[in-house]
Design a protein that fits this description.
By secondary structure, chain A is an all-alpha fold. Helices cover about 70% and strands about 0% of the residues of chain A. Chain B has 15 helices and nine strands. Chain B is elongated, with a radius of gyration of 28 Å. Classes of the chains: A mainly alpha, B alpha+beta.
């Protein structure tokens, strides 16, 4: 059953259908909100509240947009409200702890630790970006939206989206250098072919 | 990309190139830069490495039970919204709720206890000899209460702002009256009540009477409302059945008796107010949910400064006509923060006080837990540690 059908079912009173929509998108939205808010607990609250609002306002959803982009807009508004009330509270150490995932088979403890440290550094650098830059970067790199979709979601011209992404990346690059001046910017994956954008 | 009138800087051009958002002259220019300038290639490498790192950031998972938590919260909010709607006649639209009837029914089925609380709370509140405004601690609760107080608001401040629900006509139940207040016609109200009744009969086998577990919680004076017990209960999917401020002597009587079907009835003896206010919240859940809730509460020691297990009251299965009663006496220090309020009652007052006041009947197959909430005393300098944080009281064992 696709999103349209699940929405129809939910509007007809089948709340389980809406539950399936939640299950489908909850982790994706949670991941994005965690990076934007810099707090897993806040992200969970925002995601839960966003789905609740989506459930209550489902009859106002216009099918011209994808359900997820509509949902994301609700979540972004909730995140903005929360971010205005709070300041980033996570330390690099907390981020490092949060970044540690269950062990993958075949990965050595030292490799796992290194990967977690890199993720922690990246999250720490991301958290230092202004909110509007961080949000643009999350929408592009984590959500995978193109410029047009990001512009629609943020209600911005495409040129502003491009500019924000550029500035976000340059600031992130500088922050990473500050966090570890002995190393070039660290990612979790090895660089791919330089001719492949 | 040709949406710009002035040329992009080389670096911004490469950023857009990384995103695959260039075309025409811009794309050709970017490729020329990369072919001719090592610095441009280095920048693109750096940006790509960052991009790959961001894409590989570990994402958490909310679990398969998350949709249920969302739906439960939405259903509760739907009920709250309906109550607010009823309180604002101009904005009130029964037709809107009729359109949402399937959801309302689902919400009503899941939150039957909540509905009963909405109906019964004002009657209790109107009998209160002292308002929350008389108590500084209650004011503090009120300060943190949300603008649109939920009918399930956990704290005594809710008692200061009762929603007045008129006594129902003789041919109506309290729930029917509340539904009428919310804009349902009598036929719809009867339908919902019938559905609830059927649901309760289905859920409650005649021979089962669940045990009662009692936990005492000391809540930080600085705790925000949204960090309170309600949030923990929702998070762990416990169902709130009943809640109200305790009064008078902190003695709870647990009855397992009913002429028609076994039930657990909580009663509080005494009439005078407790200072500071103490709240009783009755909830149900599976043993696993209770374990998770206890762990959750204890992990939030900033909010719940003390979590004390006061014991488990196992009740004998009630017969259809046999009336059994077990008393659970709480020491004043356990439930009311050591204020010893019962001692302030004169013998005459105690004699004239109601013998018992029902908090509500509990129907359900799961275990029940009674939370006794009190505000922890503000931390005094003498109990403040060197780091400036309040010393955390030790939590008791289960």
């Amino acid at each position: 059953m696709n999103d349209e059908q699940l929405i129809d079912e939910a509007l007809a009173g089948n709340s389980a259908a809406f539950g399936r929509l939640v299950l489908k998108y909850q982790d994706r939205l949670y991941h994005a909100m965690t990076q934007i808010l810099g707090s897993a607990a806040d992200a969970e609250d925002v995601v839960q509240e966003s789905f609740v609002q989506a459930f209550l306002k489902l009859e106002t959803f216009r099918r011209s947009a994808l359900f997820y982009t509509w949902l994301y807009r609700i979540a972004a508004n909730a995140a903005c409200t929360l971010a205005r009330r709070r300041r980033p509270a996570r330390s690099v150490e907390q981020m490092r702890e949060a970044a540690v995932e269950p062990a993958d088979r075949g990965e050595s403890p030292s490799g796992r630790l290194e990967r977690a440290e890199r993720a922690a550094q990246l999250e720490a650098a991301l958290a230092r970006l202004p909110q509007e830059y961080r949000e643009a970067l999350v929408l592009r790199e984590i959500e995978g939206f193109d410029y047009g979709t990001i512009a629609g979601l943020l209600d911005l011209p495409i040129g502003t989206v491009r500019s924000r992404l550029f500035r976000a990346r340059m600031q992130l690059r500088e922050h990473l250098k500050e966090l570890d001046p002995s190393e070039p910017p660290k990612g979790l994956a090895a660089p791919t072919s330089p001719t492949n954008p | 990309m040709t949406d710009h009138q002035t040329p992009l800087s080389d670096d911004e051009l490469l950023s857009a190139y990384l995103d695959g958002e260039l075309a025409g002259d811009d794309l050709a220019r970017a490729e020329r830069l990369l072919a001719e300038q090592p610095g441009s290639r280095q920048l693109l490498d750096d940006l790509r490495t960052i991009r790959d790192g961001l894409r590989a950031l570990p994402g958490g998972q909310l679990g398969e039970d998350f949709p249920q938590r969302v739906l439960r919260k939405a259903e509760r909010q739907l009920l709250t919204e309906s109550q607010v709607s009823a309180a604002i006649p101009a904005a009130h639209s029964p037709a809107r709720w009729r359109n949402k009837r399937p959801w309302i029914y689902a919400a009503a089925s899941l939150a039957a206890g909540l509905l009963i609380a909405v109906v019964s709370w004002p009657q209790r509140s109107m009998k209160a000899p002292a308002s929350a405004a008389d108590h500084p601690a209650a004011d503090k609760f009120a300060h943190h209460a949300p603008a649109s107080s939920s009918p399930a608001s956990m704290y005594p401040a809710a008692a200061a702002k009762p929603t007045i629900v008129p006594a129902p006509p003789e041919n109506q139940t309290g729930l029917q009256a509340a539904l009428a207040q919310w804009g349902f016609n009598s036929q719809d109200a009867n339908e919902i009540v019938d559905q609830l009744s059927a649901s309760q009969k289905h859920e409650q086998p005649a021979s089962e009477t669940p045990p009662l577990i009692v936990w005492s919680l000391a809540v930080s004076p600085d705790a925000l409302e949204h960090e309170g017990l309600e949030r923990v209960l929702v998070r762990n999917e416990l169902r709130v059945v009943e809640q109200l401020p305790l009064r008078g002597e902190t003695t709870l009587a647990v009855d397992a008796a009913s002429a028609t079907r076994p039930a657990v009835k909580l009663s509080v003896a005494g009439a005078s107010a407790i200072h500071p206010p103490v709240m009783a919240v009755l909830a149900t859940g599976s043993p696993q949910q209770l374990d998770a809730t206890l762990a959750d509460l204890r992990s939030r020691s900033d909010t719940f400064q003390q979590v004390t297990n006061l014991g488990r009251q196992s009740l004998p299965a009630g017969g259809r006509t046999a009336k059994r009663k077990s008393s659970l006496a709480l020491q004043p220090g356990q439930a009311s923060g050591g204020q010893g309020q019962a001692k302030n009652q004169t013998p005459t007052e105690a004699k004239n006080a109601p013998r018992s006041r029902s908090l509500g009947e509990v129907q359900g197959p799961a275990e029940m837990v009674l939370f006794i909430l009190r505000r922890a005393e503000p931390t005094s300098p003498a109990t403040t540690s060197e780091s400036g944080k309040a010393a955390k009281p030790a939590a008791d064992k289960d």
